[in-house]
Amino acid sequence: GANSLWGGRFAAGPSAIMQRINASIGFDKALWRQDIAGSKAHAAMLARQGIIGESDRDAILAGLDQVAQEIAEGRFQFSEDLEDIHMNVESRLREIIGEPAGRLHTARSRNDQVATDFKLWVRDALDRLDGDLKALQAALIDRAEEHAGTIMPGFTHLQTAQPVTFGHHLLAYVEMLGRDRSRALDARARLNECPLGSAALAGTPYPIDREMTAWALGFDRPTANSLDAVSDRDFALEYLSLASICATHLSRLAEEVVLWCTTQFRFVRLTDAFTTGSSIMPQKRNPDAAELVRAKAGRVIGALNGLLVVMKGLPLAYSKDMQEDKEPVFQADETLALCLAATTGMVRDLTADPDAMRRAVEAGFPTATDLADWLVRSLGLPFREAHHVTGRIVKLAEERGVGLSALPLEAMRTVHPAITEDVFGVLTLEASVASRTSFGGTAPDRVREAVAAARERFL
Ligand code: ARG
């Protein structure tokens, strides 16, 4: 039969396929808490403004509490013919309290209702995300402190560049995650305006108090333009953007873990808790969790692209297209939370192999820049010439199959006769990292300071 909520104008119900394409209850039931909170705030405001009576308000509030309890306890019958969470809740309210339920939807529309619910949901998601990011930062900072002086190759082009410390490398990710948290905070502040009371698109003739509902729901203020309020999904796009950037950070770290776990690198080892074996190759220990974090970033980025494409052609105000906004956000949120938990687990689980890191860094002439800098400082060579001289010395060492510090002084002097014994002081890995004391540099003392500062800033 015709719909109980708009059946006045409709003689017949929808076709089965119409119902299936139209219904959002399958996923928007996730908004039930927000929907009930919004309705309670709205009912309280309607009564305070004299738009509904106090006994109707009391019946509505008590009825909504009962609906909430039924949903929380898993006793609620969600129905697809009631399309979405808003109509499911209202319809059950009518069953429980009867006639007063029909007064709840005064001075509002599902358009402002859904925008309000969804903002509240995204706001909670941002708060959860901040906690998850902080937990990963804490794990990285702990491991960075432990490895403040552990020397590893620093890379450019994935070629050994200069020695750095493992602690310094881990703290790089702490900075990235700090920016992710700050983006989440920005997005939260920007979304925190309440659409409720914008009604369908144009506002409402009832004497509502939008400040009251905004404050009751923890918003800073009501939205300023009713057309914008029901059409705006920037908050979802911002959430997905910052989630995509964050997932990209996790993916880069995951990629490094995958590399570091190879027999070629061996920089780290994950325990059985974070690896899988092969059904055919008994020697294998595969870092599947890291590979999946790397892969799942694709889903989050896909969700962002999906919603951008949904939104880009929509005229003002609401169109049903906008119902497609929720699944990408829900899915991205679930995926990102899982990836953050897995990454935190791996960071805490991994064991570094300082010997393997040292072997790797020694193989790549990592102190060549230190030699060039010595030539500048001690012999007064212009840097460009020092670069050239160092290149020829590296070539000699390569031909002999030794590192720079094992190359005899006489050999170096064939390239530049003024080089002295002193040069060996800058050619060790320890001297190299210890010398990089500029703010933000890799010197172990600097890294220890950075660990303490990161605890202050982030934890
Ligand atoms: N289920 C709808 C959504 O998620 C609620 C808003 C419906 N509004 C409308 N005018 N049909 O967007």
Q: What tags apply to this protein structure?
A:
argininosuccinate lyase activity; two-stranded antiparallel sheet; mainly alpha; 459 residues
Summarize the structure.
Pfam families: ASL_C2, Lyase_1. The protein is mostly helical.
Helical coverage, percent range: 55-70%
β-strand percent reads under 5%
Biggest sheet architecture: 2 strands, antiparallel
Dominant shape: elongated
List unreliable stretches of 5+ residues: none
Catalytic activity: 2-(N(omega)-L-arginino)succinate = fumarate + L-arginine
Pfam families: ASL_C2, Lyase_1
Protein name: Argininosuccinate lyase
InterPro entries: Arg_succ_lyase_C, Argininosuccinate_lyase, Fumarase/histidase_N, Fumarate_lyase_CS, Fumarate_lyase_fam, Fumarate_lyase_N, L-Aspartase-like
Q: How would you explain this protein's 3D organization?
A:
With 459 residues, this protein is mainly alpha-helical. The protein contains 18 helices and 6 strands. Strands 1-2 form a two-stranded antiparallel sheet. Helix 3 crosses helix 6, helix 6 (110-146) runs antiparallel to helix 7 and helix 10 packs parallel to helix 12. 42% of the residues are buried. Bound molecules: arginine (ARG). Arginine binds at residues 24, 28, 84, 110-111, 114, 318, 320, 322-323. Residues 365-434 form the Argininosuccinate lyase C-terminal domain. This is Argininosuccinate lyase.
